[in-house]
Every structure is written in C-alpha cells, then in structure tokens.
C-alpha cells in the first residue's frame, strides 16, 4: 500500500514512486522515486478520469501557490482557507526585516515575516482585526526591542539591500548610513532569490523602507517625511529611507 504524501516537504525528502506519479515543479526523479528539490507545501495535480497520464507531484515555494493548486482540484463547494503568511520568501514577496549590518555598498537584514496580499492589506488597514498568528503589530514591537536582538537572527532568512536598490531616484547619491541603521525594521520586496546565503530585497517604492526605528537616544521615532524621522522626546531628527506609513 502506497504511503500518504506529506503536506510539507524538505529538500531531498522522498515523495512517491515515479511509476505512479510524474515529477512536477520543485521535484526531481532519482532511482525511480520522486524527491523534493525545495522546501514547501506538496500539491498533487490529479489526472483526468480514463486518462493515461499520471498525477503530477509539485512542491511550491509559497503556500499561496499550493492553495491555488488545491482549489482547482477540489469541488467548487469546498472552502479552502487562505493563509496569511508564505512558507518561504519568493520573488515579489513583501517582507518585514530587521537591519543587522550596514556597509558602504549594502545593508544586511534578517527577514522576520513574509507577507502575502491579504496580510499586506491588513497591515495597511489597522481597523481590521487580526488573529494571534497574524498580529503584525506585536511582531514589529518585539523585533524593534533591542533586548530581543540576539544570535537568533542567524537562524532566520538573510537578505541584502544593495545601494542601487534603496530608492528609485538619485541612486548614485545614496549613503547607506543615512538610509538605514542597525535595528531598524524595514518593509521591502524580494527581487531575487540570490544565492545560497542571501536573498535580494528592494525598498525603491514609496510604500517600502523603514517602518520602525529608534533614535540614538533609544526612543521610538515617527516619520516626518520620506527621508526623515524624529525623536518625540528629544526632538532630534535622523535621516532614513522612510516607508509610507501603514
């Protein structure tokens, strides 16, 4: 009896026999078995009745793609819940990340959470309610606390914001020390899966950039323009690449 397919797979995990299934995106065949090539949710595109074609096993990078595939293979009366978060960053994913290092040519960030359209719109509309798992405000508040900055950042997805990806205009005049500081919370979009170590993120849109930052005095600042934030206690202003407020 064939074993049940896993709902989530990790790279190298055996999914099923090649004699029963066909290998789809995110999988490969080795020794007559289909294995996962990437980590993510597993979906099966069932073959049509009386068709000689095999069902196709695929592994997606995001939950959103898996839900879409599952919804097409189920009846129209079945309600498929839409998750708020993706399992992995993908191209065009909107992410919230904490700046961990700023260099002359690039800033290194640690990705805290990957958003889809529903979570993104929820963040833009604070009047909507959120479940415990979808409380972006608490995630930001915890991440912005310096006491929570630890070696756990090394276990998160790492990404780079290159100097040319900070803003859309006057790229040659960008000074990264004036755009980001260590500990800032940044909203950005993934533009490349990069290499084995880093994703690549851009903040070159009005709604992207620093969303939370502390001043040199340690107080939470508020934005006053697209390139400046102010300490409400000391009144001191500091430069940032500021995102349009949620």
From TrEMBL:
It is found in: Nucleus, Nucleolus. GO terms for cellular component: chromatin; cytoplasm; cytoplasmic exosome (RNase complex); nuclear exosome (RNase complex); nucleolus. GO terms for biological process: exonucleolytic trimming to generate mature 3'-end of 5.8S rRNA from tricistronic rRNA transcript (SSU-rRNA, 5.8S rRNA, LSU-rRNA); mRNA processing; nuclear polyadenylation-dependent rRNA catabolic process; nuclear-transcribed mRNA catabolic process, non-stop decay; TRAMP-dependent tRNA surveillance pathway. Transmembrane segments: none annotated. Residues 8-45 form the Exosome complex component N-terminal domain. Gene3D superfamilies: 2.40.50.100, Nucleic acid-binding proteins (2.40.50.140). GO terms for molecular function: RNA binding. Keywords: Cytoplasm, Exosome. Residues 88-193 form the Exosome complex component CSL4 C-terminal domain. InterPro entries: Csl4, EXOSC1_C, Exosome_cplx_N_dom, NA-bd_OB-fold. This is CorA family metal ion transporter, putative (AFU_orthologue AFUA_5G13530). It comes from Emericella nidulans (strain FGSC A4 / ATCC 38163 / CBS 112.46 / NRRL 194 / M139) (Aspergillus nidulans).
């Amino acid at each position: 009896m064939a074993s049940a397919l896993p709902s989530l797979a990790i790279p190298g995990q055996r999914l099923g026999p090649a004699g029963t299934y066909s290998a789809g995106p995110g999988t490969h065949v080795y020794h007559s078995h289909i294995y996962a090539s990437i980590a993510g949710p597993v979906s099966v595109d069932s073959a049509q009745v009386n068709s000689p074609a095999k069902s196709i096993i695929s592994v997606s990078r995001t939950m959103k793609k898996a839900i879409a595939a599952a919804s097409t293979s189920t009846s129209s009366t079945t309600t498929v819940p839409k998750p708020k978060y993706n399992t992995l960053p993908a191209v065009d994913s909107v992410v919230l990340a904490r700046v961990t290092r700023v260099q002359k040519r690039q800033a290194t960030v640690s990705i805290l959470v990957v958003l889809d359209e529903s979570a993104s719109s929820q963040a833009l509309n604070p009047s909507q309610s959120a479940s415990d798992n979808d409380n972006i405000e608490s995630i930001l508040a915890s991440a912005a606390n310096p006491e929570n900055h630890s070696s756990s950042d090394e276990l998160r997805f790492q990404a780079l914001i290159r100097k040319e990806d900070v803003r859309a205009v006057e790229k040659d005049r960008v000074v990264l020390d004036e755009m980001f500081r260590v500990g800032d919370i940044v909203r950005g979009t993934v533009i490349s899966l990069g290499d084995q170590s880093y994703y690549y993120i851009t903040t070159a849109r009005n709604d992207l950039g620093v969303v939370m930052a502390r001043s040199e005095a340690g107080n939470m600042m508020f934005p006053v323009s697209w390139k400046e934030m102010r300490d409400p206690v000391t009144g001191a202003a500091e430069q940032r690449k500021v995102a349009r407020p949620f």
